[in-house]
Write a structure and sequence with these properties.
With 251 residues, the protein is α/β, with parallel strands linked by helices. Helices cover 49% and strands 17% of the residues. It contains 9 helices and 8 strands. Strands 1-2-8-7-3-4 form a 6-stranded mixed sheet, with helices on both faces. It has a two-stranded antiparallel ribbon with strand order 5-6. Helix 5 crosses helix 7. The structure holds zinc ion. The site of zinc ion has 7 residues, from helix 2. Zinc ion binds next to helix 2.
Protein backbone atom coordinates (compact mmCIF):
# COMPACT_ATOMS: atom_id res chain seq x y z
CA UNK A 1 0.00 0.00 0.00
CA UNK A 2 2.77 2.33 1.03
CA UNK A 3 4.79 1.47 -2.09
CA UNK A 4 1.97 2.05 -4.54
CA UNK A 5 1.19 5.44 -3.01
CA UNK A 6 4.80 6.41 -3.44
CA UNK A 7 4.70 5.31 -7.08
CA UNK A 8 1.60 7.34 -7.75
CA UNK A 9 3.01 10.40 -6.10
CA UNK A 10 6.27 10.20 -8.07
CA UNK A 11 4.34 9.71 -11.30
CA UNK A 12 2.17 12.71 -10.51
CA UNK A 13 5.24 14.73 -9.78
CA UNK A 14 6.77 13.97 -13.19
CA UNK A 15 3.46 14.63 -14.94
CA UNK A 16 3.11 17.95 -13.18
CA UNK A 17 6.67 18.90 -14.13
CA UNK A 18 6.08 18.14 -17.80
CA UNK A 19 2.81 20.09 -17.63
CA UNK A 20 4.62 23.04 -16.09
CA UNK A 21 7.23 22.76 -18.83
CA UNK A 22 4.53 22.74 -21.51
CA UNK A 23 2.71 25.61 -19.86
CA UNK A 24 5.92 27.60 -19.59
CA UNK A 25 6.79 27.05 -23.25
CA UNK A 26 3.28 27.88 -24.43
CA UNK A 27 3.25 31.08 -22.39
CA UNK A 28 6.65 32.05 -23.74
CA UNK A 29 5.45 31.45 -27.30
CA UNK A 30 2.28 33.52 -26.75
CA UNK A 31 4.23 36.37 -25.17
CA UNK A 32 6.72 36.24 -28.06
CA UNK A 33 3.94 36.35 -30.63
CA UNK A 34 2.25 39.22 -28.80
CA UNK A 35 5.38 41.37 -28.63
CA UNK A 36 6.60 40.53 -32.15
CA UNK A 37 3.60 42.50 -33.39
CA UNK A 38 5.17 45.68 -32.06
CA UNK A 39 8.48 44.96 -33.76
CA UNK A 40 7.06 44.27 -37.22
CA UNK A 41 7.41 47.31 -39.42
CA UNK A 42 7.22 48.24 -43.07
CA UNK A 43 10.41 47.20 -44.86
CA UNK A 44 10.61 50.56 -46.60
CA UNK A 45 9.24 53.36 -44.37
CA UNK A 46 9.61 51.48 -41.03
CA UNK A 47 6.12 52.43 -39.84
CA UNK A 48 5.00 49.75 -37.36
CA UNK A 49 2.36 47.17 -38.28
CA UNK A 50 2.50 45.38 -41.61
CA UNK A 51 5.79 44.32 -43.22
CA UNK A 52 4.53 45.99 -46.41
CA UNK A 53 2.35 48.99 -45.46
CA UNK A 54 -0.52 50.01 -47.69
CA UNK A 55 0.93 53.36 -48.69
CA UNK A 56 4.33 51.97 -49.76
CA UNK A 57 2.58 49.10 -51.55
CA UNK A 58 0.55 51.58 -53.57
CA UNK A 59 3.64 53.66 -54.30
CA UNK A 60 5.43 50.56 -55.56
CA UNK A 61 2.51 49.40 -57.72
CA UNK A 62 2.31 52.86 -59.32
CA UNK A 63 5.77 52.37 -60.84
CA UNK A 64 4.70 49.42 -63.02
CA UNK A 65 6.01 49.62 -66.58
CA UNK A 66 6.43 47.94 -69.94
CA UNK A 67 10.00 47.29 -71.08
CA UNK A 68 9.63 47.93 -74.79
CA UNK A 69 13.40 47.98 -75.30
CA UNK A 70 13.57 44.34 -74.21
CA UNK A 71 10.52 42.97 -75.99
CA UNK A 72 12.08 43.57 -79.42
CA UNK A 73 15.47 42.05 -78.62
CA UNK A 74 13.93 39.09 -76.79
CA UNK A 75 11.49 38.58 -79.71
CA UNK A 76 8.37 38.59 -77.57
CA UNK A 77 5.23 40.68 -77.79
CA UNK A 78 5.46 42.28 -74.36
CA UNK A 79 7.64 42.56 -71.23
CA UNK A 80 5.57 43.74 -68.24
CA UNK A 81 6.94 44.68 -64.83
CA UNK A 82 4.83 45.16 -61.72
CA UNK A 83 7.08 47.83 -60.20
CA UNK A 84 10.37 49.62 -60.66
CA UNK A 85 13.41 48.13 -58.96
CA UNK A 86 13.94 51.18 -56.77
CA UNK A 87 12.49 52.66 -53.58
CA UNK A 88 9.68 50.66 -52.00
CA UNK A 89 9.54 48.13 -54.86
CA UNK A 90 13.22 47.28 -54.48
CA UNK A 91 12.90 46.99 -50.68
CA UNK A 92 9.97 44.59 -51.01
CA UNK A 93 11.57 42.42 -53.68
CA UNK A 94 14.78 42.12 -51.67
CA UNK A 95 12.82 41.36 -48.49
CA UNK A 96 10.75 38.74 -50.30
CA UNK A 97 13.95 37.05 -51.46
CA UNK A 98 16.05 37.22 -48.30
CA UNK A 99 13.95 38.16 -45.24
CA UNK A 100 12.00 35.27 -43.71
CA UNK A 101 9.90 37.53 -41.44
CA UNK A 102 8.59 39.48 -44.45
CA UNK A 103 5.11 38.40 -45.55
CA UNK A 104 5.37 38.66 -49.33
CA UNK A 105 1.81 37.57 -50.13
CA UNK A 106 0.17 41.02 -50.32
CA UNK A 107 3.01 42.40 -52.46
CA UNK A 108 3.09 39.46 -54.87
CA UNK A 109 -0.68 39.31 -55.13
CA UNK A 110 -0.99 43.07 -55.70
CA UNK A 111 1.38 42.87 -58.64
CA UNK A 112 -0.31 39.72 -59.97
CA UNK A 113 -3.66 41.55 -60.01
CA UNK A 114 -2.23 44.59 -61.83
CA UNK A 115 -0.48 42.47 -64.45
CA UNK A 116 -3.45 40.14 -64.96
CA UNK A 117 -5.47 43.12 -66.26
CA UNK A 118 -2.73 43.96 -68.77
CA UNK A 119 -2.42 40.30 -69.79
CA UNK A 120 -6.19 39.86 -70.18
CA UNK A 121 -6.09 41.86 -73.43
CA UNK A 122 -3.09 39.95 -74.74
CA UNK A 123 -4.35 36.41 -74.16
CA UNK A 124 -8.00 37.02 -75.00
CA UNK A 125 -8.02 34.55 -77.91
CA UNK A 126 -6.09 31.83 -76.06
CA UNK A 127 -7.75 29.05 -74.11
CA UNK A 128 -4.76 27.29 -72.60
CA UNK A 129 -1.54 28.97 -71.46
CA UNK A 130 1.50 27.87 -69.45
CA UNK A 131 3.39 30.04 -66.98
CA UNK A 132 6.99 29.05 -66.42
CA UNK A 133 9.06 30.68 -63.65
CA UNK A 134 12.68 31.59 -64.31
CA UNK A 135 14.74 29.23 -62.14
CA UNK A 136 16.75 30.25 -59.12
CA UNK A 137 19.61 28.41 -57.53
CA UNK A 138 18.85 25.22 -55.61
CA UNK A 139 19.52 26.81 -52.23
CA UNK A 140 16.73 29.33 -52.70
CA UNK A 141 14.43 26.81 -54.38
CA UNK A 142 14.33 24.72 -51.23
CA UNK A 143 14.47 27.50 -48.61
CA UNK A 144 10.92 28.60 -49.42
CA UNK A 145 12.11 31.89 -50.90
CA UNK A 146 11.63 30.91 -54.53
CA UNK A 147 9.65 34.04 -55.23
CA UNK A 148 9.31 33.53 -59.01
CA UNK A 149 7.27 30.38 -58.40
CA UNK A 150 5.02 32.15 -55.86
CA UNK A 151 4.52 34.93 -58.38
CA UNK A 152 3.76 32.44 -61.16
CA UNK A 153 1.06 30.79 -59.04
CA UNK A 154 -0.50 34.12 -58.02
CA UNK A 155 -0.50 35.32 -61.63
CA UNK A 156 -2.13 32.10 -62.87
CA UNK A 157 -4.88 32.47 -60.29
CA UNK A 158 -5.55 36.12 -61.20
CA UNK A 159 -5.52 35.43 -64.95
CA UNK A 160 -8.20 32.80 -64.50
CA UNK A 161 -10.23 35.29 -62.43
CA UNK A 162 -10.00 37.95 -65.17
CA UNK A 163 -11.15 35.45 -67.80
CA UNK A 164 -14.08 34.38 -65.64
CA UNK A 165 -15.13 38.00 -65.20
CA UNK A 166 -15.36 38.30 -68.97
CA UNK A 167 -17.20 34.98 -69.25
CA UNK A 168 -14.32 33.30 -71.07
CA UNK A 169 -12.71 29.97 -70.33
CA UNK A 170 -8.96 30.08 -69.80
CA UNK A 171 -6.75 27.34 -68.40
CA UNK A 172 -3.45 28.45 -66.97
CA UNK A 173 -0.89 25.91 -65.84
CA UNK A 174 2.30 26.59 -63.93
CA UNK A 175 5.27 24.43 -64.94
CA UNK A 176 8.36 24.63 -62.80
CA UNK A 177 10.40 22.90 -65.49
CA UNK A 178 13.55 25.03 -65.82
CA UNK A 179 16.68 24.52 -63.74
CA UNK A 180 19.89 26.46 -63.34
CA UNK A 181 23.08 24.49 -63.70
CA UNK A 182 24.78 23.98 -60.31
CA UNK A 183 27.89 25.56 -61.83
CA UNK A 184 26.11 28.86 -62.36
CA UNK A 185 27.26 31.30 -59.70
CA UNK A 186 24.34 33.72 -59.90
CA UNK A 187 24.12 37.33 -60.98
CA UNK A 188 24.86 38.94 -57.64
CA UNK A 189 27.98 41.08 -57.60
CA UNK A 190 28.58 40.76 -61.33
CA UNK A 191 29.26 43.72 -63.57
CA UNK A 192 27.02 44.53 -66.52
CA UNK A 193 29.47 42.96 -68.97
CA UNK A 194 29.72 39.74 -66.95
CA UNK A 195 25.94 39.61 -66.60
CA UNK A 196 25.52 39.50 -70.35
CA UNK A 197 27.32 36.15 -70.55
CA UNK A 198 24.73 33.46 -71.19
CA UNK A 199 23.51 31.60 -68.14
CA UNK A 200 23.39 27.82 -67.94
CA UNK A 201 19.71 26.91 -67.99
CA UNK A 202 18.31 23.52 -68.91
CA UNK A 203 14.87 22.01 -69.34
CA UNK A 204 13.93 19.36 -66.82
CA UNK A 205 11.31 16.96 -68.10
CA UNK A 206 9.00 17.70 -71.01
CA UNK A 207 6.05 20.05 -71.05
CA UNK A 208 2.96 18.34 -72.38
CA UNK A 209 0.95 19.79 -75.28
CA UNK A 210 3.59 22.49 -75.97
CA UNK A 211 1.40 25.33 -74.73
CA UNK A 212 2.17 28.98 -75.43
CA UNK A 213 4.33 30.21 -72.57
CA UNK A 214 4.51 33.30 -70.38
CA UNK A 215 7.89 33.53 -68.64
CA UNK A 216 7.92 34.95 -65.11
CA UNK A 217 10.87 36.38 -63.15
CA UNK A 218 11.45 38.40 -59.97
CA UNK A 219 13.86 41.07 -61.22
CA UNK A 220 14.71 41.97 -64.82
CA UNK A 221 17.87 44.00 -65.33
CA UNK A 222 19.62 43.30 -68.62
CA UNK A 223 17.36 40.38 -69.52
CA UNK A 224 20.19 37.85 -69.84
CA UNK A 225 18.63 35.19 -67.63
CA UNK A 226 15.26 35.54 -69.33
CA UNK A 227 16.92 35.31 -72.74
CA UNK A 228 18.69 32.07 -71.80
CA UNK A 229 15.39 30.63 -70.57
CA UNK A 230 13.52 31.74 -73.69
CA UNK A 231 16.15 30.13 -75.93
CA UNK A 232 15.98 26.83 -74.06
CA UNK A 233 12.18 26.80 -74.27
CA UNK A 234 12.19 27.67 -77.97
CA UNK A 235 14.63 24.84 -78.62
CA UNK A 236 12.07 22.60 -76.91
CA UNK A 237 9.49 23.76 -79.46
CA UNK A 238 7.57 26.19 -77.28
CA UNK A 239 6.25 29.58 -78.27
CA UNK A 240 6.97 32.47 -75.87
CA UNK A 241 4.08 34.93 -75.72
CA UNK A 242 5.57 37.39 -73.29
CA UNK A 243 7.47 38.01 -70.10
CA UNK A 244 6.24 39.27 -66.72
CA UNK A 245 8.37 40.28 -63.77
CA UNK A 246 7.78 41.53 -60.26
CA UNK A 247 10.16 44.41 -60.79
CA UNK A 248 12.46 45.83 -63.40
CA UNK A 249 15.30 48.31 -63.61
CA UNK A 250 14.10 51.35 -65.56
CA UNK A 251 16.00 51.96 -68.79
ZN1 LIG B 1 5.70 51.68 -45.65
Amino acid sequence: MEESRQLISSFDFLGAMSNIGDFFLTTLRCVGRFFSRFFLSCRYCFSPGDTACERCLEDALDTGMEREDLSSCLQVEYVFSGCAYKGAGRAFVLSAKHDLSFSADSFVEGIAIELSYKLAEKVSRKTHVAIIPVPSRARRRYSGRYISLDFARALAQQMVCRAQEKGEVLRVEVYDCLRLSPFDLGQRGRSGKQRRIQRKVYLRGKVKNLLPVILVDDVITTGTTVRSCAEVLRQGGMQILGICSLSSVAR
